Amino acid sequence: MLYNFPTKKALLSGLLDQMLVAHRGLLSEVPESHPARTLTGYLETVIQSKDVDDDLSMAILATAATDPRLLDPLRTELDSDLERILTDTQDAPAAMIAVLAIQGLRFQRLLNLPDGGAEIRERVIERLRIIIDEL
Description:
The chain is mostly helical. It has a single domain, classed as Tetracycline Repressor, domain 2 (Orthogonal Bundle). It has helices at residues 8-29, 37-47, 51-66, 72-87, 92-110, 118-134.
């Protein structure tokens, strides 16, 4: 695959683009009638990420440490998502709390930080789903 890209940075940029396409695909699976569609899709993206996605995410983050512009497509995507999340809900602060919790789950997994175990993690995810559905 590297032979299709002139540099490692270009390869990681291409992989980031593929991850964003997968994210958009998960968002599109949430019914349009769902009141917190983008936020629900955001949660599903984190829940459904695989170990290989985590490894790629870490490689992209490591490369972005030397060239922060590598993450510009991610920033643009998340900025659009966040705008929709905050305008599609009745309670923008509660929606932002959910976003931050979801991001916390993602980085907890990426950095292999303690998470209280599988049972607690599942209960947290279920609670987040309830909170999101109430927005």
